[in-house]
Structure formats: structure tokens, C-alpha cells
Amino acid sequence: MATFLYKLGRLAFRRRHFVALIWVALLTLAGVGAASAPPAGNSSFSIPGTEAQKAFDLLEQRFPGASADGATARVVFKAPSGEKMTDADNKATVQKTVDELADGSEVASVADPYTGNAVSKDGTIAYASVKYDVSGMELEESTKDALEDAAQQARDAGLTVEVGGDALQAVPETGATEVIGIAVAAVVLVITFGSLVAAGLPLLTALIGVGIGVSSITALASALELGSTTSILAMMIGLAVGIDYALFIVSRYRAELAEGREREEAAGRAVGTAGSAVVFAGLTVVIALVGLAVVNIPMLTKMGVAAAGTVAIAVLIALTMIPALLGYAGRRVKPAGAKGRLLGRSRKGEPKPDRPAGPPKANLGTRWASFVVRRPLAVLLLGVIGLGAAAVPAASLELGLPDDGSQPTSTTQRRAYDLLSEGFGPGFNGPLMVVVDAKGSDAPKDAFTDVEKQIKDLDGVVAVTPPAPNKGGDTATITVIPDSKPSSVQTEDLVHAIRDAGGDVEAKTGAETLVTGSTAMNIDVSEKLNDALVPYLVLVVGLAFLLLIVVFRSILVPLKAALGFLLSVMAALGAVVAVFQWGWLSGLMGVEETGPVMSMMPIFMVGVVFGLAMDYEVFLVTRMREAFVHGEKPHQAVVTGFKHGARVVTAAAVIMMAVFAGFIGSSESMVKMIGFGLAIAVFFDAFVVRMAIVPAVLALLGKKAWWLPKWLDRALPNVDVEGEGLRTAGERGSDPDEDRELVRA
Q1: I want to staple 202 with a disulfide (CB 3.0 to 4.6 A). Which of 38, 95, 246, 670 is the partner?
Q2: 3-class SS at 372?
Q3: What is the pLDDT of residue 582?
Q4: Whole-structure pTM over 0.70, yes or no?
Q5: How many C-alpha atoms does 642 have within 13 Å on its Cβ side?
Q6: What pLDDT sits at residue 745?
Q7: Residue 399's beta-bridge partner residues?
Q8: Quick one: pLDDT at residue 468?
Q9: Top-confidence residue, 140 or 18
Q10: What's the maximum distance between 2 C-alpha atoms anywhere in the chain?
Q11: pLDDT in tens, 291-329
């Protein structure tokens, strides 16, 4: 591995014009494809294997032309103080609005509030339901404008009017904080390298990689039904790992220059050593993201594969374009320890006066590692207890999917949600649709009646509509209004109670009862994600564990890496619960409404954080193994690893945190939550697990940390991540076989 990458790095350095041309051509091609691609259509949210999805599919078969997946809107009217919606003037205004809405070319139907029993008991609130032929993402802008214009005209007439539903669904915006995150990354890079040129290389390559990845996703969005969130998450992860991977290689290049090597040789060795770590770190991220397919939720699978593709591009760019750009930069990229004009030279370019002769001062990483290896048990206990305390809120984790009730109060969707709750009860915003399939029943009408009666007798039910059969008379729908809000535990219990009652009816009549609707779909998604979490953990952690055994040629080091990851991800979930569910610091994070944590959050965090955590593990610990293989004692190898890697890993972690935190400003609650969760997870993993717990455990284990059974050592391929194959005989100072025996000892 190291030898191949060494040759690749030297080739890219020499043929830099060709390499740069290839990547610029790919960026141009992806950009043209994105610009000429049709706009993304409906990103269908199907959940195979769930009862809600089965009922949804049945509705499309038995009620053809009903546009089961069409967009909906609820135009909610509230009368001025002291008036009723049944007053003549208000009634005329509503009727005019309904007539205007019905004229739309994409409108399937509009329900009049006064003929559809859609006026509250106190007469102050009414609503008109609008059904469209196409989904919310496919609606023409003219249709959305017509909906907003009709609502505005009713407002001008004196009514309070708000619009709920998905008809006004907007593409999420990330906000200016994303740019701030990139700016922070730039500042950290300048401080780390002391040079604008060296700092600019990781930023440039990361932006090119993200540009290619996101443009490709945009170009394929329509054909593959990729939602807007997919490109945002790919951008988030691609930027973070792209900067980090390039940072690792540029740092190693400067270290090789400091040892007196020629620039082409330094580039080759940087790619051969740090590049090997980048390859395996990238592989762990790709495994974690592609592994999301195990959950069997198409939307989540597409998000994972798209983000994994962006990570793969980041790895390839780091291995090829970075050495090419280093060739262009020439002497403007200084050796490690040498300061450029920005931080270390006078304006005339003359070096600052040398300090008095003496031993060089140990850097912060060396001093910290020396402290940890002297007090490993105390550091280990402090780190574990701290992360355990942060993880405590995770015990109260409640899962759900966002609805209009989780929108900011500044949106019309949220205000419509609140008006409907005020006029008709909290459960009105999450009606349950019960589908009765009586095709196998001898008496379909009796089956419909039995189901209606069973549901009315259940606790927590406010209203049940009469069965509405299809033309064939073998299937009927029943709408159930709970007395609790959609995201509550009571509503979830009601869904299960209806399904249990349906089982009794099926045993008696042969008719199958299914519960669907957005609320039931959300409940089924949460349960499906919970059921998939353990198999996903076993798959991803298991594969990465095997990969790390090959990288580190050790059993205990990969085991320690996996356990440390579990600590950091649990602590991060605890922080997410504290902010988004309990409301701690919610104002600072821009969280206007607390509630259940998004159902996808735990499994998504497990996948992404595991991959990112292994970045730091691989880069930091490979330097320790490199020192150990080259003859240093275990404790000294830990200190050496920190001497060369702590500054870079710290900078990489701060950059990744800044990039993720930049997405907290997104208008999409899902992106906001993921941005915060990943940022805090990187903080816990990089600064507590990798910087404290890892050296403490390695110090306690000593030589045992690098133990590997001889039979397994012979069976495993030698990937040479530490670059032993690149060392000359003089650099080794010993026989390579002796070094291998040292590791086995």
C-alpha cells in the first residue's frame, strides 16, 4: 500500500499539469451536468416492510386517481375578535377563497368548510382542505403563488389566515453560518501552517471535491429521486473530511521536508505514509455510510451512498491533487518548523534572530502525552466519567419525525398547526387513516361497521368518520382523530391499539385492518430504525474492526477504538437530547420548538461519527505504531505519536467542528440537528477519547497493545501503513525482520 501510494504521489507531483487538468475537467463536467439536469422531482419517502406503507400501496391500487401521494394544504381561517366564521361577511370571504383555489390547474379538489363540517364548535375557526394532483416538490411555482395570493386576499378582508400542509414545502436553506464555518477552517489552517499558500491547499481541494460531489448529486437528483437534504449532507461531510485528509498529507509533506528530503521525494513519502492513513480512514467512513442500506429505508440509503461517494472523491483528490498542487507551490510551502513571511519573517524576508542555543522546547502535544503516560489511570477515569455524565440525558431519548408542529413559529405552517389545535384539538393535526381490506370477507359492509365500532370504543379517540368504500366495495377508509398531538406517546399507543383491534376483526370477518397516514408512517419509521440499530452497529463496527486489525496489526487497539467510539456517540446523543428535547441552550442554537429527537438521528450519528472518529484514530495511532515498529518503547511511542500528530489532529477536529456547526443555521430541522450532533460528537471523540482516553489506555497496556497472534499475523496482508517499505537500509538501522519480531514480542 505505502509503496503504491508513494509512486502515485511522485507521479502526481511530476505530472501535475495533467492531474490538475483531469480534476478541473471533472468539475466542469459535473457542473455542466448539474446546470442542464431537470429539476428534482418527488423524493418519495417509502418505507418497505411497514404496515403504513402497505396501506398506502393498497390505497393506490383500490382508489385509482385519488392522488394518494399528492400535496395537500389546509387553509385555516380565524374570525376577528367578537365575530364568528358563520357570519355572512366572513362566510362570503371564505367562499370566494375556495372558488379561487378550485380554479388551479393542479388542484384535484377543494373541500368547503361549511359543507364538510370543518368549522370549530365555537364558530371562530374554519379550514378548507385542498388536494393537488402532484406532490409538494412537483408543484409549479404559479400554483404555490395562487395559494398564497388567495390566503392574502382573505387576510385583506379582515380574517386571520394561515396555510398548513406540504403544498408550500420549501427547499431548506443552510444560512450564512455555513460560510462562517469555512472561514473558521481557513483561520485554523493558517495558524497551523503559518502560510497562506499551505493553508489554501486543503481548502481548495476540499471545495473542488465537494463541487464535483454535489454537482453530480444535483445532476442525478431527478433520475434517482434525491431530495435536497441529500446534497446538503454530502456537502457537510465532504467539506469536513476533504479538508482533514488534505491537512494530514500537507502536514506530513512539511515534516518530510524538515528531514531534508527533496520536494518530489517528500510528496511521495507524504502520500505513502499519511496517504495510507487517509485511505483507511476514508474506507471506514464509506463503510459506515454505505452500511445505512441495512436499514432498508430508500431515502436513508440514497443519503448514505451519495455522502459516501463525496468522501471517496475527497480521498482521491487528497492522494493526487494535493501532491500536484504541492508541485505548483514549490518553495512557498515551508518545512515543518520553518515559518513563512506571514508568521515568522520580517517584511524584508529576513529571518528573525535565532534563540540562544539549547535543547528545543517540547511542543504541547509532547507535554500532554508525557503527562498522560505518567497518570494514565486518572486520565482514563476522568474521561470515562465525563462522557458518562454527558450521556445521561440519552436515557430519556424520545424519537419521532418532524411535522408542522416542529416548525419555527414564524412560519405559516406552524401558525396553521396552532390554529387547528386551538379550534379542533391537538390530535386534529395528526389524523389516522384506517384502511379496511375486505376483499377476503364474505360480508364487507359488516366488516367496515365492526372496525368503526371497535375504534370508537378505544380510549384516546375524539372522532371517527363513517367508512368510505371504494367503487368495488371491497375496501374502505376510516379517518380517526386522536385526542393527543401527533408526536405524543399517547398517539403511538392508539395506533397500536387500533391495529390490535383490527386483528380481532380479521379473525371474525376475514377483513384486514391497516393504519396509515403521516402520523402512523412516522411511528413505523421510528420503530424500524430502532430495530435496525443493533444489526447496523454489528455490521459497521464489525467490518471496521476487521479493517483496523489489518491497519494496526493488533487486536486490542481496534477494540479500544470501537469502545471509545461508543462512549463519544452516546455522549453526543445525550447532548442532542439536552438541547433539542429538553431545551437546554435551545435559544443559542436557534431551536424554536423542542420535541422528540428525529428518528434517523441515532442511526445516522452512529454511521457518520464512527467513520469520522476512525479518521483521528488511524492518523494518530499509525504514528504511534510507526514509532513502535521503528524501535521505540511503548510509552515513548505514544509521546512520539502525539509529538507529530496532536497538532494536526487538533486542527482537523476544530475544522470539522466548525464545518458541521455551520449547518446549525439551516432552516431544515433535520440538518440543524445533524449539524449540532456531529459537531459535538467530534468534540467528544477528538478531544476526550482520542486525546485522553486513547493514550491512557495504550500507556496502561504497554507492549500488549500491539499483540497479535502469530497465526493471524501470517494470515493478514501486510498493507504497510507506517511506510516501513519506504525506508532505506540506513534509515532502518536494523533488519526489517527484527522490527517485525519486535512487534510480535
Answers
A1: 246
A2: helix
A3: 87
A4: yes
A5: 27
A6: 40
A7: 597
A8: 86
A9: 18
A10: 100
A11: 888 888 887 888 888 889 999 999 999 999 999 999 998
Q: Do 632 and 147 meet the contact criterion of CB atoms below 8 Å apart?
A: no
DSSP 524-555: HHHHHHHHHHHHHHHHHHHHHHHHHHHHH--S
Whole-number Å distance between alpha carbons of 265 and 284: 28
Which grid cell sits at 482? 386522536
From residue 361, how far is each of 205, 358, 366, 640 by CA, in Å? 33, 9, 10, 14
Those residues with Cβ within 8 angstroms of residue 626's Cβ, 6 or more apart along the chain or in another chain: 273, 641, 722, 723
SS3 call for 716: coil
Separation in Å, CA 531 to CA 42, 499, 643: 27, 19, 43
Cα–Cα distances (Å) from 533 to 299, 526, 643, in that order, read 16, 11, 38
Amino acid at 554: S
> Which pLDDT value is given to residue 721?
63
The neighbour count for residue 382, using CB atoms within 10 Å, is 15
Q: Per-residue pLDDT for 485 more than 90?
A: no
Residues 137, 221: Cα–Cα separation, whole Å: 12
Give the dihedral sign, CA 576/579/583/587. negative
Q: How many CB atoms lie within 10 A of CB 115?
A: 8
User: Of the candidates 665, 677, 675, which has an alpha carbon nearest to the alpha carbon of residue 606?
Assistant: 677
More confident residue, 606 or 355: 606
